[in-house]
Amino acid sequence: MTTFQPEPVAGEAPPPDSVRPKDSTPQAPTSVSRLNETIRGFIQTWGSVWVEGEITSWNVRGGNVFGRLKDNAADATISFRIWSSTRERLPDDLKVGDHVVTCVKADFFAKSGDFSFGVSAMRHVGLGDQLERLERLRAQLRAEGLFDPSRRKPLPFLPQTIGLITGENSDAEKDVHRNAELRWPQVRFRTKYAASQGERCVPETIAALKALDAAPDVDVIIIARGGGDPQTLLGFSDERLVRAVAAASTPVVSAIGHENDHPLLDDVADLRASTPTDAAKRVVPDVAEQRALVAQLRSRLTSRLTQRVSHDIAQLEQLRSRPALRSPESMIASRAQEVELLTARGRDRVDRALESHARRTAELRATLRALSPASTLARGYAIAHLADGVIVRDASQAPASTPVVVTVGRGSFAARSDGEVAESAGAPSDPTAAGDAPAPN
């Protein structure tokens, strides 16, 4: 509450018969009436004061108004009264929740000891001043990143339960329920009521928001209020509420006022709806639209499948119409002669290769037979062996009486050497004779 103190009245003396601290002692106390008169005289020296605050109580009795004015920032209040004669000069639309500037003068009733303020003037706070304060707060919150689009949470396609914060029996509640149920008849709501204006608006809305945010089955929360003048919508620009919405883990939809209303709640909410009706339409899908979409998708799927099957059938018929597939036996018959020719050619090549290798084998066998010691022995030659198996190649190896084994073409026999003899003139000189004969196999 902002106060404007008047200049003190110079040279004004205290009322007569006033009580000073030194004038009262335990032995000589003052009276209650004299004390009250002293207080009343002191208070009357204050004069009038202009104060700013919110009307939290407005009771009309006999044409007079008795109410209270609150400073929301400091949570301080004062009582005021408006006489019927003064009320006639005030605006007719003053009510609880209005933010006003009031000219008050303190008054103390000496008889009852009651303290109050008499109102001589009262008017709404200028909208320009309020908007200026809101813009400063908006800039501060934007600088903190609370309005950043990247922090906005997506809304579920089909919420299990919708949390609704609104005034009890309000048009906003009826609009949200009616439009949501028309779009999706099985939709469920969990509603928390809160004052939509006045001093209870912000704390009750925050309490409802925390309760719904903690509920595990609530998938989205709508804060809805019908239209109103900027004064009545001030609660939805309160910094405490804005920060509570920013801290919520459940997506929050702001549906405050009409299209041209723009409280700070719209900037921090995950989705801003222009009206409560718009909120219902944007949170709940239309069952008729979804059925039409499903039917459209089913039709498109059937069409695509039909086209694909028809295309594949045409492709298969095209393949079957090709000569190779129309009469596959002709392809086999045309290849049979080629296979027979290749088979005969392969058989001929194999036969020639076998004959060539057979001749080569016979030649090698004949050569081997000619080089074999058995052939030499068959021609009448012999091989002499000593007892230890050594072949006698020199006559000196077998002196007289040396036992030897003589191998001939067919078998072997034992013999004894008569010693070395002189070579006769007619003796054969074949190097294969005696000791020079080739070794047997």
UniProtKB/TrEMBL annotation:
Residue ranges constituting the Exonuclease VII large subunit C-terminal domain according to the UniProt record: 146-364
Enzyme Commission code: 3.1.11.6
Pfam family, one: Exonuc_VII_L
Domain named OB-fold nucleic acid binding: residues: 31-122
Catalysed conversion reaction: Exonucleolytic cleavage in either 5'- to 3'- or 3'- to 5'-direction to yield nucleoside 5'-phosphates
Keywords of the record: Cytoplasm, Exonuclease, Hydrolase, Nuclease
Enzyme class: hydrolase
Region: Disordered, residue numbers: 1-31, 417-441
InterPro entries: Exonuc_VII_L, Exonuc_VII_lsu_C, OB-fold_nuc-bd_dom
Location in the cell: Cytoplasm
Chief localisation class: cytoplasm
Function: Bidirectionally degrades single-stranded DNA into large acid-insoluble oligonucleotides, which are then degraded further into small acid-soluble oligonucleotides.
Subunit structure: Heterooligomer composed of large and small subunits.
Family: Belongs to the XseA family.
Protein's UniProt name: Exodeoxyribonuclease 7 large subunit
Source species: Microbacterium gallinarum
Gene: xseA
